[in-house]
Amino acid sequence: MLAEACLTPGQNLVMASPTFQSIAHAAKLVAADVRNVPLTHEYAHDLPAMLTHTDAKTGVVYICNPNKPTGTLTPKSALEAFLRKLPSETFVVMDEAYHDYVFAEWSVQFLVDSRRDRFRADRDAHGFRKSMDSPDFAWLRGFPRRKQRNG
Question: Which pLDDT tens digit goes with each residue over 122-141?
Fold first, then answer.
């Protein structure tokens, strides 16, 4: 549903590989290109490489943090720096559905905890913690209608 709401044919989705794959399958169904960016040798998101794979046709940048299946965490400060480098019109989805599995002593700050600034005021960014496999899709209503706005 997220890909259908946010991607159009000819656009692309930038995401890590491996990561949670549901959005990649959905992107292909709407004829969007999927740009998989390999994780680093430490199994972390390669944010500089993700940035280089982003262009004017990027409809969505998807980040699963903590990443599934590796469980690696990308620090909030690295994600904020990454968001500052992206073009402001790039739609970002921050999937923090697995945040409950992070040990409290790791003292991780998640971006979704910063809802008041929506990651950046000039950014079309959304975060969620609800499982994408959930039968309750009410959380999706908050996403913009990209196809209507762009097309």
Answer: 455 555 555 444 444 454 55
Instruction: Give the C-alpha separation, 109 to 10, whole Å.
Output: 35
pTM greater than 0.85 (yes/no): no
Residue range(s) defining the domain that contains residue 27: 2-130
Contact, 5 vs 145, CB < 8 A?
A: yes
CATH number for the domain spanning 123: value is: 3.40.640.10
Count of domains observed in the chain: 1
Written as one letter, the residue type at 23 is: I
3-state secondary structure of 5: helix
> Cα dist. 111→3, 24, 92, 94, 139 in Å?
21, 22, 12, 8, 17
